[in-house]
Amino acid sequence: MIFLLSSVVLIMAGCGSSDSSDNKVGYLKFYNSSTNAPSLFLTVDENLDEDEDDEVEITFSGTAYGTADTRRELPTGDYFYELAWQDEDSAARADLEMIFQDQISIEQDTIKFVVASGDISQPQVNVYDISLVDDEDDSTLSLFNLRVLNMHGSNQALDIYLSQTDETFNEATMIGSYSFQELSENQKFDQDQYVFYITHAGEDEVLFQSNNVSFLYPSQYVMVIRENIGNSDSPYIIDKVSSSYTETFLDYNAEAHFRVFNAIDQHELIADYNDAIDVEITGGNTTSSLSSLERGTFSDEIVKENGDFSVKVTVSDSETILLNNHLLSLPENANKTLFLYLTEDNVDHDGDGDVDENGDGIVDEIEISINSLVVDNSVRESIYDHQLQLVNLVDSDDFGVVEFYFVRSDETIATAYYSSAVSYANAESIILRNNTYQVFAVAKHNSSEIVLANFELTLDENSDELFLIIEQDDTAASGYRVTTEEQL
Q: Which fold has domain 378-488?
């Protein structure tokens, strides 16, 4: 049974604590709900015209889309506050690009919940007043405090329900119906685990069902409903926002999306392989197939119900099996790319470390294996910076790591601010601000540094999240190439 007290009782009986001292404090919290925003920095300044040591002037760490910063305590009073993003290497306030400035009044025992939404080039900023709950009965009766904020960009009113974890929507209790940007009144529930449901206002078709959500402490929470920018089939996400952290919950039934990239090189041990493969993905009583996926290309996107799948790869127009029973795990709302590649290994039958037993300078025997690398695709929509996935598929005896340097016009490799090292058969992500970069892929062999590839990369507001995939290429002058491809 779900225990609920109305917000009217809350206001009358237990909201906030009185403070008779002069050191009165209130609270400030920021949530980033702008889908195309980079991390945003919140600054609080007591006086814009003065810079005295005893004045309050604080710039907090950046807050990414879909997250909230830690609740901050401030002396009561009037402040200026700013929102900005990092346009330079420095995150100092003077170097940030301000996008919004206004005044705010910090009041005793009140949380000022600042929410940025809309297009970040013209952001909409709302400030909500949330009374601090300091109710001893919450601990005694094992209760928690819950509010709902509808920040979904459809501008449509939504009904929110919750049920016990062993119940269904049929047994769910309606929390309320909320229009766009509406923050609900506070409600109290038993500390427990719950399942949340979303429907359009006045309708009973379930549009979203969460996994189990735990509420184990007598705390205050805001459940923020926002857009799921990574999956058009499941348009809702819920963020559980507490005083110190944000936990994201996806639709329990959300489908998964993935693509396959064929990076398998030709080899004498698979003589019938001619740069094309067939792929079968089996699981949940369903099978998806790809035919004649060419070397160096991505498949079309495949959509599956979330779950665990087995991957089989064969040579096109042949019965030769290259890979079988490789696991592909696709949780709800997943968006991934499966890279298939070939590894060559020297055979050491007796385990003595000598792979040239007859001493003729030639490895006695080699074997190959086809392997898979699963990489999460970025679904970010930030217009001021972009996340790149750097994938290293170079199988070399001379080096195992490739260092990517992103060099701006006033830098050299030695002074480059952005760089990332990627070991073989791995991927690393890096976020770059909009600019033009000379990209160098560099490997170290003994004491020498070798440039494997070099090219120019320009990122702007219209750029996509990208893969940079480095592979061996006998036709290239350096013997290597970097493929640049959109992640979605």
A: Immunoglobulin-like (2.60.40)
What percent of the chain is helix, strand and coil (3-state, nearest 5)? 5, 55, 40
Can you read off the two tokens belonging to residue 80? 């200026």
**Is 32 in contact with 40 (CB distance < 8 Å)?**
yes
Contact between 152 and 227 (Cβ < 8 Å): yes
Strand 220-227 and strand 213-215: the pairing is unpaired
CB contact at 8 A, 322 and 270: yes
pLDDT digits (tens, 9 = 90+) for 104-126: 999 999 999 999 999 999 999 99
The residues pairing with 404 across neighbouring beta strands, listed in sequence order, are 420, 441
Q: Are 454 and 438 in contact (CB under 8 A)?
A: yes
Q: Where are the domains of the chain?
A: 7-249, 255-377, 378-488
| 383-436 pLDDT tens trace | 999 999 999 999 998 999 999 999 999 999 999 999 999 999 999 999 999 999
Please state the length of the chain.
Answer: 488
Cα–Cα distance between 132 and 5 in angstroms, integer?
Answer: 16
Residue 22 has pLDDT above 70, yes or no: no
- pTM summary value: 0.90
140 Cβ neighbours under 8 A, 6+ residues apart: none
End-to-end CA distance of the chain: 44
Beta bridge partners of 266: none
Strand bridging mode 40-45 / 77-86: antiparallel
Residue type, 328: L
pLDDT of residue 1 exceeding 60:
no
255-377 fold: Immunoglobulin-like (2.60.40)
Whole-angstrom Cα distance, residue 402 to residue 397? 13
* Residue pLDDT, tens place only, 271-318: 999 999 999 999 988 999 999 999 999 999 999 999 999 999 999 999
Which secondary structure element, helix H or strand E, spans residue 343, and what is its range? strand 335-346
Residue in 218, 286, 224, 213 with CA at minimum distance from that of residue 255: 286
Examine domains 255-377 and 378-488 and report if their fold is the same: yes
